[in-house]
């Protein structure tokens, strides 16, 4: 009897509910929030809400005090313990967050146009995602100049796209102790990718992006259409072996709440067209 009670207690601690299901909404407008990052802090377990705000997150073998974090650009993150959720359908609300940015007027007459990053088109050396692609990021560190850098466009090379279409979110983050840190921009940039391979060019002039310190530019698939037949190689970007004394490193994490990793010997096929 004591053993049975102990077994039930352990089950209640480790498996309060699985999977965790619900919808995410804007707290002010009540509108559903699509493509919200949802993950268990300090783990590689994560997902992304769909276009209607619906999500289902696996909690297998997670304790009741595990921390689930909801985040999306332009909103304050929310962290909740697993034990705070109901076993049924959960309604999660996020509060809009304003990031005040100064108006910028750019006169290009005295600026030089440059390309910063890596222009590899390799299909032999690659990085990317399998068929369960939601939540993880891959990107590059872009070195800043000694003066403001104005971003015109983003370019990234697809080595293989096994889906009909992938919607990719673009992140711009600052660096702290050689790791990506805070977002430097509060608008969601979503790029549809339909090509099977080739360059994707994204015009960013309307966003008036400027940076004066190194930035992390990362790509995150948030949804896809169609089925990928090659399970392990569904959405890949090109990689290059990095030359010594350069800092266009490959940076990545396996889910929205996983730790950042850096591979200083590789660089992804991502670059910015800028004015300096």
Descriptive account of the structure:
The chain has 276 residues and is mainly beta. It folds into two domains: 93 residues, Carboxypeptidase-like, regulatory domain (Immunoglobulin-like), CATH 2.60.40; 168 residues, Jelly Rolls, CATH 2.60.120. 5% of the residues lie in helices and 45% in strands. It is built from one helix and 22 strands. Strands 8, 9, 11, 15, 16, 18, 21 and 22 form an eight-stranded antiparallel beta sheet that branches. Strands 10, 12, 13, 14, 17, 19 and 20 form a seven-stranded antiparallel beta sheet that branches. A four-stranded antiparallel beta sheet has the order 3-2-5-6, with no helix packed on it. A hairpin with a 6-residue loop joins strand 5 and strand 6. The N and C termini lie far apart (74 Å).
């Amino acid at each position: 009897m004591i053993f049975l009670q102990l077994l039930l207690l352990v089950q209640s601690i480790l498996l309060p509910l699985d999977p965790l299901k619900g919808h995410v909404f804007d707290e002010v407008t009540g509108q559903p929030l699509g493509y919200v990052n949802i993950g268990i802090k300090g783990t590689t377990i994560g997902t992304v809400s769909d276009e209607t705000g619906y999500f289902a997150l696996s909690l297998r073998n997670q304790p009741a005090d595990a921390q689930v974090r909801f985040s999306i650009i332009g909103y304050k993150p929310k962290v909740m313990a697993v034990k705070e959720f109901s076993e049924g359908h959960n309604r999660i609300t996020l509060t809009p967050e304003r990031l005040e940015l100064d108006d910028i007027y750019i006169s290009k007459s005295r600026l030089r146009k440059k390309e910063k990053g890596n222009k590899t088109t390799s299909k032999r050396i690659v990085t990317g995602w399998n068929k369960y692609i939601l939540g993880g990021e891959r990107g590059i560190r872009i070195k800043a100049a000694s003066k403001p850098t104005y971003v015109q466009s983003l370019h990234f090379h697809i080595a293989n796209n096994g889906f009909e279409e992938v919607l990719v979110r673009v992140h711009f983050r600052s660096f702290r102790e050689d790791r990506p840190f805070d977002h430097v921009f509060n608008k969601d940039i979503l790029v549809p990718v339909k090509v099977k391979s080739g360059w994707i060019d994204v015009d960013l002039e309307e966003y008036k992006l400027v940076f004066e310190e190194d930035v992390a530019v990362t790509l995150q698939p948030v949804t896809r259409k169609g089925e990928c037949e090659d399970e392990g190689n569904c959405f890949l970007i090109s990689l290059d072996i990095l030359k010594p004394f350069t800092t266009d490193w490959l940076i990545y994490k396996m889910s929205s709440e996983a730790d950042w990793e850096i591979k200083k010997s590789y660089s992804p096929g991502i670059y910015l067209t800028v004015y300096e």
